[in-house]
UniProtKB/TrEMBL annotation:
<protein>
    <submittedName>
        <fullName>PEP-CTERM sorting domain-containing protein</fullName>
    </submittedName>
</protein>
<feature type="signal peptide">
    <location>
        <begin position="1"/>
        <end position="22"/>
    </location>
</feature>
<dbReference type="InterPro" id="IPR013424">
    <property type="entry name" value="Ice-binding_C"/>
</dbReference>
<keyword id="KW-0732">Signal</keyword>
<feature type="domain" description="Ice-binding protein C-terminal">
    <location>
        <begin position="193"/>
        <end position="216"/>
    </location>
</feature>
<dbReference type="Pfam" id="PF07589">
    <property type="entry name" value="PEP-CTERM"/>
</dbReference>
Length: 216
């Protein structure tokens, strides 16, 4: 696998978003190009906190852009064993009971989608600060999972949630922590297979045209 570390440039998207999203903040991520063709975004390797301004945080990988939003300011927390959290005045900058983050991919083409295959969390276990291991239940893309099974990057595989353009991560009352990483494929929507009736109609049309040609 190839690991690529870079500060993210989102100037192109910022120009497109214009003044309506003037407070979008640039995030920073490391990337892993996995051998199976999937891509991992890692969010907990920043050198200092990056505080969002309410309109979300942007990440970019060679033109593929990820916009993370929530009901509050999205925060990329430092040090290691942090990650993406949310600050809305209710608690700290972590993701906690009832809070949610939305991961949206605005530059996907009409027939391009995300297949989310794995996620990892860092947690605050028993109030002991940032931890590599997390615990508590979290809803990811509509599925309820135990964060303890998703505490290491690439450790746990998610249920098949289909092809999506965005997904939500929602913390339950017993989870306090951060989103450390996500792993996903970029997929193209498969072309539809013609219905049997459509195939028969096409064949009959071809046979009819051939019969007319022979009669001439």
């Amino acid at each position: 696998m190839n690991i690529i570390s870079k500060a993210l440039s989102v100037s192109a998207l910022a120009l497109c978003l214009g003044s309506a999203n003037a407070a979008v903040v640039n995030g920073q991520s490391d990337f892993i190009e996995n051998d199976d063709g999937s891509l991992t975004f890692i969010f907990d390797l920043v050198e200092a906190d990056i505080d969002g301004m309410g309109d979300g945080m942007l990440f970019e990988y060679f033109g593929l852009q990820l916009l993370v939003t929530g009901d509050g300011n999205v925060v990329q927390d430092y040090p290691a064993d942090g990650g993406l959290g949310l600050y809305n005045g209710a608690d700290g900058d972590n993701l906690a009971g009832g809070e949610s983050l939305t991961f949206d991919f605005p530059t996907l083409g009409e027939f391009e989608f995300i297949e989310l295959v794995s996620i990892s969390f860092n947690g605050l276990i028993a109030g002991d600060g940032h931890q590599e291991m997390a615990d508590g239940m979290v809803s990811v893309n509509g599925f309820s999972i135990d964060a303890a099974d998703y505490s290491l990057t690439g450790q746990g595989m998610l249920p098949d949630g289909g092809l999506v353009k965005s997904f939500d991560v929602v913390a339950t009352a017993d989870f306090t922590g951060y989103v450390e990483s996500i792993t996903f494929f970029v997929r193209e929507e498969p072309l539809g297979v013609p219905e049997p009736g459509t195939i028969l109609l096409m064949l009959s049309g071809l046979l009819g045209a051939r019969f007319i040609r022979y009669r001439r």
